[in-house]
């Protein structure tokens, strides 16, 4: 029976383990780029830009229109003509024009021969596709940054949870020792009560941290577009700490933010040219071919013997339009476009300044974090040694419980400080990588 229970428990454990998805940072980023709605919408915008190009290109292609109509005129309009035409000089004769039935079918084709707005629009449409492609890259980089920060937050909370669980286990062992001494009359009840309170507080803190871990995991799943019902875990890993990440200065020309703004500036330049194109004349070629049937009877399917007569007609022509004066509307549009170009220039300068500002701050933060990590690591080792010695002294009656609790608190504080320093380093490292335009390397 015991063997059966053991087998069932092992199977249950394996099922639960299989349901938990282990996520490395690279896997989390890849999942986000494939499933997060922001990344999907950015890809759709690139796809949609192809349709926008086709829409603009259509203006340069021939435009073909088919028209058909059927009219019945129960009362024909009459015109007053001199009676001389009808052998009635000196009189006016009212003569009806047209026929009761009239049916037409025409085909018209129009081709732009010269239209500066269309030519400019074609160039702008191609640039628009490049703009959306760059915007997709920027969206993915922003998603990578956001997911990376969230991922490391989860890692740090898990580390803090491990620290408090380790301290809780250690404190419980001390409590058991004090309990044994108290039972044998070698310890005071107040010491046992104090250590019991410490255990209760650690258990409460562990519960709070466990909830915090769950909240951070939910945040990470939201950022990568993963269902909340999915179970995830982070692999056990360590942070590599070095100053190598910022040995190369940031290159603003490689930053997607700057590239996107410059492409937007190019689009605004085309917009200005499009407005200025309203000054240019336009020339188009058009041709029409039609077929008409008129008579006293319903024309469809009828013949001349039915008093219905069919005839075709055609025309070819050039249309020239020369703008002369539109109340300075075009001039106002061009001047507005000039203002937009000046504003985008200021945006580029401000963005470059902000990016340099972020890069310098990230370098300072990373440098400080490296020093802090080294210091806190030494503090952790020293705090462990102090705690071990204090614990032995307490057992041998050479140290008070207050000394022991202080040593435990010092170890917990130094461990948390070390973990926080690691987080600050990784967050600064992400900013350095971002400043160098290499966030995509985290995915590859």
Automatic annotation (TrEMBL):
Please indicate if the UniProt record lists Signal as a keyword. Answer: yes
Which residues span the membrane? none
| Protein's UniProt name | Outer membrane protein TolC
| Pfam families on file | OEP
Extract one GO cellular component term from the record. Answer: cell outer membrane
Q: Which InterPro entries match?
A: OMP_efflux (IPR003423), TolC-like (IPR051906)
Coiled-coil annotation: which residues?
A: 334-424
Q: Where in the cell is it found?
A: Cell outer membrane
Q: Which UniProt keywords apply?
A: Cell outer membrane, Coiled coil, Membrane, Signal, Transmembrane, Transmembrane beta strand, Transport
Looking at the keywords, is Transport present? yes
Kindly list the GO molecular function terms attached to this UniProt entry: efflux transmembrane transporter activity; porin activity
Q: Where is the signal peptide?
A: 1-20
Kindly give the PANTHER family that the UniProt entry links to this protein. Answer: OUTER MEMBRANE PROTEIN TOLC (PTHR30026)
Give the family this protein belongs to, as stated in its UniProt record.
Belongs to the outer membrane factor (OMF) (TC 1.B.17) family.
